[in-house]
Structure formats: C-alpha cells, structure tokens
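Listing S7. Sequence submitted for prediction.
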Amino acid sequence: MTAPARPAPTRVFLPLAQSPLLDHRHDDEDVDLAVLLATAAEPDPATVRALLSITAVPAADRIARALDERTDLPLTSLALLVARRPDAKQAIGALRGRLFPDGTSPGACHRFARTMATLVHQPAFVDDAYLDSERFRASAAAADPVVLEQLLAPILDKGTLTGPAQTGLLALLDARAGRVPTALIDLAGATALDRARHQQVRAALLARREQTIRGLAGHTGGLTLAAELWFDSLTTAADTPVQASQALALAENAADSLASGEDQSCAWPAVRRRWQHVTAAASAAEAQPGGWEQAWQAAEFTDEGARWDDTQRALVAGYDLLADHVRSTWGSADTPPTPNQCWAADPTGRALLHLVADHLTGHQTHSPLPHYNDQLLIAFVYGLAKNRHDNIPAGLQLHGLIAAIKAARSKAALLTRPVPADLGVVVPMRAETHHLTPKHGDDALTVKVAQLGWLLQACPDAYADLLLVDESTDGASARAARAIDVEHPQIRVTVAQRPDDTSAKGGAVLWGLTELAGAGRTILAYTDLDLTYPLEQLGLHVAALDQPGVGAVIGSRRRPDSHGYYPSTGPTPTTWLYQRAVRDLLHLDATDPQAGFKAFPATALRTALPLSADHSLAFDTDLLAAIARCGHTVAEVGVAALHQYVEGHRSIPHDYDTMLNGVHRQALRHGLDSDARRTPTWDRIRQAGSLAAAAAEPTITTMLKAPTSR
C-alpha cells in the first residue's frame, strides 16, 4: 500500500504592518522577502510607504536600492522615495526629468526636485535658505506646472497645512507670480494658502472663546448663554481669512465694548442680532437685586464638607436665596402666602425668582440645564429640601426654585432660536376685577407684563401682543384693566370688551386668537387671568412648536416633569375618567387637555379655527381636535404651576358632566363613528349616569391563572 504524499509546507504572509522588520526582529529570509516586494510588487504609494517605513539596517538600504532601480514608479511613489531617501540618485533624476521634461531649462535642478518631494512628505526638513535663493526662484518658474500640481496634490488637498509646508508653498507661488495665463498649481496653491490662513486665525478665535465669555460674564449678571451664542455666531460668520481676522478683533475687544456701551461695528446681521442680546443681558443685570454672589459663595460645600459640582451648586445657591427670602418675609406670618402670591404677585419674590432663573440659564457656563432634564432637576430639589430638614412655610422655596428652573429653560429656548419670537397671548376675563386690583388683588395684568417682559428682555428683537378679552355685559373687568398703567417696550397691551352671554371663555379665546393671527403674530397662546401659569414659561411652548409638524402645545400640569398642581397621590378618579373619555371620543392622547396654558403656530390656527365652534368651557378639546384633524401633532410640555394644593379645598366648581357631553358633541362633529370605534370609558360614564357615579364604581380586577397540571 502506497503511503500518502506529504502536504507541501504552507507559508503565512503577514501584512507589512506586522512585519518583524519594523521592530528590528528579522532574519535573512524576512529581508529577502521585503526586497523582493520592493522589486516586484505594485509600486502604488501605500506599498512604497509601507516598505520605506522599515528602518532596520541593512534591510532599509537594500529596500531603498531596489526601489531606486525601478523605472515604473508613479509620481507620488517617486516623491515618497526621494523625500525619505535623498541618496536615491536614479529616483531624483527621474523626478527631475518629470519636473523639467525638456532637460535644457536653465532652472532644471536636482535640488529643486528633492525640495518639492520633501515639501510634500517631510516639510520640516525643507531648507528655508534655499527657498530664498535666486536658484530656487528660477527652478520654480521653469518647472512644468501640471507636474507640480500633481506632485503637490497631497498638501493642496489637505484640510490643514503645517507651518513649514505653508512657508514652502508660499515661496513657490511667489516665485511663479506674474505668469500668464495662471496655471492650475497657482490657483490650487492660493486656495490652499487661504484655507490654511483661515484655519489658523479661526483656531486663534476659538482659543479665545472661554476668555471672551468670561470677560463678558462680568457685565451680564448670570446670563452667559447670550455671550456664548454671540461668540458662536461670530465663528460661524468667519468664512474667509479676512473675516476670521475681523471676528478675532471683535472677540478681543468685546468686554471693553460692553463695559463702555460702545456699539460694535459689524457687517454680519446674525452677529449684530446676538450682540444685542448680550447688551440686553448687561442692561438687565444692572437692575437685578443683589444676593447671588453671597449665595454662590456659601453654596460651595455640602453639609458633609464635600464640594458641590458647579451645575448642582447653582441649584443650591438658588435654593438658599429663595429659602432665605421666605424665612425673612413670611417666617412669622400666621398664614403663609400661596406660591402665586409669593413668587408672582409680590414684586420682590418675583425679582428673586427671575434672578435665580437667569443664573440657571447660564452662570459662568455652569448651567445645569444642558446636563439634566427637568424631572431629574425637580427630584434634586426635593432631595435637597429633605436633606436640609428646612421648616419653611408651605414649602414655598420648592415652588419658587422649580418655577425658576422652568423659567430658565424657557428663556434659553427663546435665546437659542435662530429667528426672534413674535408672540400673541390671549387672556379671557369675565367678572375678574379681583384679580386685577393692585392693592387687594393679584395685580394680574402688571404681573403678566413683568413675567413676559423678563422672558423677552434678553431678546430685544422679540415682541408680544397681550390681548385681554372681557365678555361680560357690564365691562367691569375691561375698565379695571384699562385703568392700570403698565408699559413695556416689547409688549403691546390691548383690552377688548366683547359682550357675549352665550360664551363661557371659549368665545373670548377663539375670537382673540383670530384677531392676533390676523394681526400677523406667528405664535399664538392663551392663558388664564389668575397667576397659576407663569408667562415666563412660554418659551417651553415655543421650543416645542419649533419641532416639525407640531400644531399645538399644551402646558401640562400632569407630566412627570410638571410641578405644583396635584397632591402626590395624583389627580382624582373623576379627573382621570374625564381625561380617558376625551381620549376615547377625540383620539387626543394628552395628559391635560383642559390646561389653560396652550400655544399654536399661526399657520395651524388658520386652518383649524374655522373647524372649531365650541364656545363653552370645553372649547379646549374642540380646538385641539380641529388641530389634529388638520394633520398636525398635539404636543405637551411640563410646566410648574404656581398653585398650592390644599387637601379638601375646592376651586370654582365646574359641571364636568356638561363639559363631557359637549366633548361628545365635538367628537360627532369631527367625525366620530360609534359603530367603527369603541369608546369604553364614555360608555361606562353614560351607563353610570355621571362622572362621579362612574368614578365611585368599584374596580373589578380579573386574575388570569395558569391551568393546573393533572
């Protein structure tokens, strides 16, 4: 029987990157293989570069000789070899021949060929003295421009140029200057130099970012976000080296210009607009109450002696500032104020809330807003209060700080918008003079203008119309509102009397929205006259409306990142049933469809308002259903309502059964087909006879059990 033949030995070829020659571990067989590759492999630049990276002697010398003897090296590979091995005489001669094809030019020079190869692949080794010589200039003028452009392509196409490469390219172009017609190498070289100069000045501009913002921060209170946005617009506008130099000069002089009130001379509209925001922040800072710096210094360490993170420290400083105000102002009061009295109606409390919100928006770039969502921030505030064991009336500091967080995010949203906000806000009122009275009431109109004014003051190009609509026949609320002297340069206040006994809030809101949309306002909103919903938070709605497809935004009291409206146990069973019935009937998946704080883009309202006909208290859902019917999305944002829930206390009673019947009529008008779509919650309420009866019914839970094995 014949023995089986032995298999031929198998050789494994490693990539050059793993060659033992690269770390000086080699034997004669490895060297022979590398030389064979240098002799016979495809002479593409990647292979030649890998072979030349072998520096072990004598392997490197043998490889270089093998490459030098080849006559088929392309231009890039030839330049690589000449740059790495200046002793490769044949390669240098071949490169010289490519650069000076006629061979008789007085500028034909081996040294020029070596210099060009070195400029591309090892620019740090270029001889600057030779670049300044007459011999170099003669060679540069005589060299073939097409070959030069091909040879220098690796640096011409680079995004950046090192200093030596930039110097060498500039010397080459200067030597070729004045040649007509201009060759591609001259155009490509000039573009590369412009790009390099631009990047260098731009790098210097970016390096000044922190220093510039810190300098501006000394004049803008806590609102460093305005300075950051201005600097970012400055760098965006610097598209050329000249523009980058101008931008750098503006950045260097920014703090001095702001301090002196000198207007910056700038040709870029976007930068001028952002600079107005910076100057507005500086003006607002002058009117801010004091106390922040002391609170900031005191909040450096935790009670255990650890150092607070700067983003958390801003929250702690705000907490302490607001808590101290409550203690000193209301600590001895028999009856503590409600949150809306403390942080809205009271001018001092409102100013402190705004002060904290400004610093949370961006204090020395230590804003917590970019790092944490509002749900986490609210949890931090509650945890801080729990650890402090503070005995503060009604937990007012919690309401104030959480409202400040919402206000800060609202202002940040308006500041970061690429275009200024153009707002219209409708406030319905009927028999509400008690909310308008300055001495004994809420002074609601003054408060709303102050809240909206604080939101807009950082954006001098933003404006708002505030339209108050009185539907009562006696017009008492309208007269009381007109008697209040309130002015703001960015807010126009209009009081309209529109008697209508058939309307219950809905008619006033729909009429007001129609009026403001017709006046050209691009973002429309409505809210109640009382101070439950702070207008400082309207920027949250604006940010949500900027998302594609959104046609309505609800300021919800019931989201996980909302605060202030319900007890910890949540809404009552009746409220939950009402909400679920609305979802059944109108397909509105919203947590708080009846919230009195909503906003819309004017484009969506123009198509939805003609479809909305309900003027009752249930008008909200009719309008939202019309928005959805027109193909828009209904979104929600969590708000901090300045509302103190008191167990057992009931506000003005509403007939929710009547409202729900109205919602059913809305659903039928918007196309509800009871046979095609199930409405189990509505059916349950109807069978029980009322919302209260349905909510009182016991809930039956069916447990499904796996069958027992036999």
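Caption to Listing S7: primary sequence and predicted structure tokens for the chain studied. DSSP finds 33 helices and seven strands in the chain. Residues 648-653 have pLDDT under 50 and may be disordered.
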